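Format is sequence with structure; example below:
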Amino acid sequence: MKALRPDDPRTVGPYRLERRLGEGGMGTVFLGSSPGGRQVAIKLIRAEHAADPRFRARFAREVEAARKVGGFYTAQVVDADAEAPEPWMATAYVPGPSLRDAVASGGPLDAAAVRRLGAALAEGLAAVHAHGLVHRDLKPGNVIMSPDGPRIIDFGVARATDATTLTVTGSVVGTYAYMAPEQIRADRAGPAADVFALGCVLVYAATGRAPFEGPSVPVIVHRIVAGPPRLDGIGGDLRDLVAACLHKEPDRRPGLAQIGRRLTAPPTYPAAPPAPAARRLPRRALIAAGAAATAAAAGVPAALLLARPGEAPAKPLPFRPTGTPRPATLVGGPIGVPRFAFVDGARTLVGPGLRELWRWDLTTGQGRAVHMPEVLDYGAKTISADGRVVAGCHNEHVAIGDPATGRTVRRIDLPDGPVSVALTADGGRLAVDHGDTIEIWDVRTGRKIGPDFGDGIELTFSADGRLLAGGPLSEEPIRVWDAATGGTIAEMRGTRPMVLAFSPDGTLLAGSTEYRQDVQLWEVRTGRTVRTWRGHTEGLRALAFSPDGGTLASGGDDRTIRLWNVRTGAAIATLTAETEEVNALTFAPDGRALASATGGGTVRLWRFS
């Protein structure tokens, strides 16, 4: 809890406000007290949203849904005024952190605690469904860990079980990482959608991550609809039950009564094996250019150091590897890193992950984490090419952070919900897609600049910041826009993109579209297909041009990294050391090394001769 700000109201209705409990895109939650001294939590809608009929309708629906359920499973509504100039709702105050905060601060729950949590949430959801409602946004942040058991909160997107409208102005509602496949597809979402979300919540409680976690919304969506859940760290019958909850087909998921019985039955699982300790690589295997024998014995390439202290990074060189390199595995790594930046004269590698930013000293191979949950959460995230700015999507805002200090420096409120972000190379401008609209923001001033335009996920700027590429969630072409005017420069054939990358000079765009294994190369000014590369056997997640533009690296679900000659179209090499899907690829400034990251958090540096 935080103290009231000078501009906060001191009363709402008959209630006196005492402290701040939290804040979101829709409004602020305060701790208050009734005239008789009872503590209440008051949700106050922001004035700028109160004039929007959509927000009023959503808020009125939340009040109605919470009143219907009430009782032991939620925070009981005690008063509300949805017609006030600033609508508000008062509920009984439930002390305790959210499940998200409890796990973030105290670590994952043990198996017995996960089973108790699951049984209580199943009972609470059954009560919700008994009143003809589907919650549709169950997630760790909407579960309060009160002393007398978990409570389900936030019915802002709840719907009657017979409702068929699942989108608002074409946007899927809910929180992507915990949404069921039928919600992603905008099909009818019944009680089984809450069962799917319950399975996701239990995975988070047991492991500290969501089962379909990814570096961007398109990756998360793809994993939910077509990929297997990540369940490592969960054992025995609990793992089997969670897997059943996460079945792609709604009618194949267990009912809540069955879930409750299985969770309260005596467990039959063995203890999950401990994760292996991270292995520290020998220092000489990382920095001794002449120690080839030592490097081979350690399983890493010689001469990993990109620039020695006091040296400027080398200029980009033509990419002509003489053989397939062996990678050095850096110590430590984030889950779901979308891209990297080389900083400090290419002596340090920086990458944003889930709730933390990682920095690796490339002279030692050691990494350290900077906790940044206010910036880096479950939404899409990115870092500028110069490593000076990091940005992350939240439910109703984008947070901007300073990688050097870990501080949050700015917040841009976007009530429709941001789904994709991109930064220019210098971090000066931010492109964000929200509510079927792309906006450009000045990061330094926090002001929106230029016209609104388009609709695009997997947004990416050209190196000079003049062009922006992306593609909408709907089945429409990939587009390249003029970032200053919003005018469409070219359209490329293909459905929604999974990954896009501009060549360094901005004349070419590489991409791979949903459920495709090939890499397309387009001419930016005309939209013409220059060539198509085939070789990957599963979907693509990462693309990167070498600094000279002569080589393209690609990686994805088949756990390989492939290198292609941009000028001739020839395949250069296939790198096969990865054991998980490849999520991120970035070349070093001199073009002689490539950083890669997998979905499980393994980060490697590949050195080319």
About this structure: The domain at 2-92 is CATH 3.30.200.20 (Phosphorylase Kinase; domain 1).
